[in-house]
Amino acid sequence: MSAEELKLLDELFDSCEYQASLEMIHKLADQESVEVKWRLARTVFFLSKQATVATEKDALVREAFGHATSALEADGDNFGANKWYGAILSEKSNLDGVTERIKQLENVQKHFQRAVTLNGTSDPGIWHMLGQFNFKLSEVGWVTRKLINSVAPNPPTASYEEALECFTKAETIRPGFYALNQLYLGKTHLALKQPDEAKPWLERAAAVQVRCDDDRICHEEATELLGKI
Predict the structure, then answer these.
(1) Cα angle at 4 between 117 and 42, to 5 degrees?
(2) pLDDT tens digits along 106-130
(3) CA separation for the pair 41, 80 (Å, rounded)
(4) Other beta carbons within 10 Å of 171
(5) Which of 121, 31, 116 is nearest to 71 (CA)?
(6) Whole-structure pTM value
(7) Long-range Cβ contacts of 48-51 (<8 Å, 24+ apart)
């Protein structure tokens, strides 16, 4: 496995060519490399986003989690392994029910923060993931918060201000790298009662070229929010 092969895999992923990425991974000689394992987990995870049948989506998320777990076991200090383990664990725990989702909140946060420590200066994606974690935790109602406090061993806390810092940091590292980051910048400003600051971010998100499911969600949600400002 060469640096050029890994670069090509990342380029295929960034271009939303997930099936081509999967096929290339299966052809690589070094299947046991942690760098291959977490990229396999990432690819299968994004293939799950394209699945239209619930059982297929569920199976792909769980397969991706198995690959992410294998990557983390291979090297617990690997940036990509921690980043994608946290992301896929979050999605898997959603499938396993509310109680399991709450129990895993601390674990998800731990792996995101570990990934930030390992490579937070050059990777905008991990800041976006941590931002989404903070945003979604901030918007839960008091009933859910009470449930979190009763179920989670060490319930994490978050604020919209912390979410905004994360999304802003991601944009600073690589402007325009991900339309969803622009969407969430807009959503966070709206949550903070700052519609003037939200509007330009939502306009950029609404104008995204739709190449994958994340782009579609981004375009639709941003367009809807702009209509309410």
Answers:
(1) 50
(2) 999 999 999 999 999 999 999 999 9
(3) 10
(4) 20
(5) 31
(6) 0.92
(7) 48/91, 49/212, 49/213, 49/214, 50/18, 50/212, 50/213
- The residue whose two tokens read 């109680």 is 99
| Cβ atoms 197, 187 nearer than 8 A | no
Instruction: Give the residue among 108, 17, 121, 13 at the shortest CA–CA distance from 68.
Output: 108
Angle between helices 105-119 and 124-138 (to 10 degrees): 150
Residue 65, both tokens? 């989690």
**Do 129 and 182 touch, CB atoms closer than 8 A?**
no
- State the Rg of the chain over Cα: 18
The answer on pLDDT for 19 being more than 80 is yes
In this predicted model, what pLDDT tens digit does every residue of 149-201 receive, in sequence order?
A: 887 777 888 999 999 999 999 999 999 999 999 999 999 999 999 999 999 99
Whether the CB-CB separation of 129 and 120 falls below 8 Å is answered with: no
Query: Which amino acid does the sequence have at 165?
Result: E
Alpha helices in the chain, H assignment, sequence order: 3-14, 18-27, 34-50, 54-74, 79-95, 98-103, 105-119, 124-138, 142-151, 160-173, 179-191, 195-206, 213-226
Query: Has residue 1 got a pLDDT over 90?
Result: no
Q: What are phi and psi of 123, to 5 degrees?
A: -110, 110
Distance CA 43, CA 60 (A): 10
Pair of tokens at residue 13: 């992923």
Tell me how far the alpha carbon of residue 112 is from its chain's centroid: 10
